Amino acid sequence: MLDIVILDDEEWIRKLIRKLLPYDSFPIRVSGEAENGIEGLELIKKNRPQIILTDIRMPMLSGLELIIEIKKIIPNSEIIIISGYDDFDYARKAIKFGVLDYILKPVEQPELERAVNNAITIIDKKKKIMNEKSLLERKVKRLTAEYFELNHEEFAHINNEKIRKSLKYIHENYNKPISLNDLCDVVLMNISYFSELFKNEVGIGFNQYIISLRFNKAKKLLIEQKDLTIGDIAQIVGFQDANYFSRLFRKKYNCTAQEYRTKPLPKLQWNLYEE
After folding, report:
1. What is the spatial distance between Cα 63 and Cα 37, in angstroms, rounded to a whole number?
2. d(Cα 229, Cα 51) in Å, to the nearest integer?
3. Treating both helix axes as pointing N-terminal to C-terminal, what angle do 191-202 and 180-187 enclose, rounded to 10 degrees?
4. pLDDT band, residue 273 (cuts 50/70/90)
5. Less crowded by CB within 10 Å, the N or C end of the chain?
6. In the sheet that 78-83 helps form, which strands lie side by side, from edge to edge?
7. How many CA atoms lie within 13 A of 179 on its CB side?
8. How many whole angstroms separate alpha carbon 91 and alpha carbon 83?
9. Which residue, 89, 20, 85, is CA-closest to 58?
């Protein structure tokens, strides 16, 4: 079911639109109405409708200003303007801001039905594309994990096959953003169960493991790649924020990354599994 909101400062227009909407032809419902731009924006924030029917000249917040704000909140929504002004410049600006259609008052049912049909068609296409993209991403993750399974044996001591697979994925992708959701997509497991199983099998939690791994890689680069800056190394091993990397490094090792680089002490070596 798709939600529609109707925004117009005249109550009789809102009632007319509500009456003319093609409920029998499409899976739609009116989830709210508003008589000015401010109320309309609050309604949209609350209901997050897929389709918005709005007048272009509204009290307190004009239709064009409202459209800009709507697109910030729900960029994939479809907006249909219903206006009493046959104004080409307004229509051109509205289309530029992402409006799907422009209907002139008085509203007639065939024109309203056509516009709603177009909106639903586009929404369905977007949904299909998003679903296909999601399925493709999941397939790529699974194929990647299968590749690791065939080409890596260094985690043979881990009893659980799915945890082995997740560790292989982490070691191949530690320099990229990796989340628990990513790993659970790879091994097809529930997040809470995976987290518990990972800690039981590996000895530490996922977040601690990946940070430990990144720092072990960083320490190696600090010693072997003197031409790289601290910021370069932070990026290479997967820290998006070099300042965060430096703060965490100092907190863990009680020295800066630069101090470690110039005087690497054995006591600073970080056991991957230490608490």
Report:
1. 7
2. 50
3. 90
4. very low
5. C
6. 28-34, 2-7, 51-54, 78-83, 101-104
7. 4
8. 10
9. 85
- Residue 26 to residue 235: CA distance in whole angstroms: 50
pLDDT at 198: 87
The 3-state DSSP class for residue 10 equals coil
Distances (CA, A) of 127 to 103, 121, 137: 25, 10, 15
> Crossing angle of helices 161-173/191-202, nearest 10°?
90
SS3 265: coil
Please state, in angstroms and as integers, the Cα–Cα distance from residue 152 to each residue in 100, 106, 157, 171, 201, following that order: 51, 69, 12, 10, 18
Question: In a 3-state reduction of DSSP, which class is residue 209?
Answer: helix
pLDDT, position 181: 87
Helix (H) or strand (E) holding 164: helix 161-173
**Which letter, b or e, does each residue of 126-150 get, where b requires 16 or more Cβ atoms within 10 Å of its Cβ?**
eeeeeeeeeeeeeeebeebbeebee
pLDDT at residue 79, rounded to an integer: 92
CA dist., res. 34 & res. 42, Å (int): 9
Instruction: Tell whether the model's pLDDT for residue 172 goes beyond 50.
Output: yes
Token pair of 260, please?
């470690």
**Which domains can be identified in the chain, with CATH numbers?**
2-127 (3.40.50.2300), 206-268 (1.10.10.60)
- The pLDDT value given to residue 59: 81
- What's the rounded Cα separation, in Å, for the pair 178 and 58? 46
| pTM over the 0.70 mark | no
Instruction: Tell me which residue has tokens 């987290």.
Output: 195
CA gap 120, 125 in Å, rounded: 9
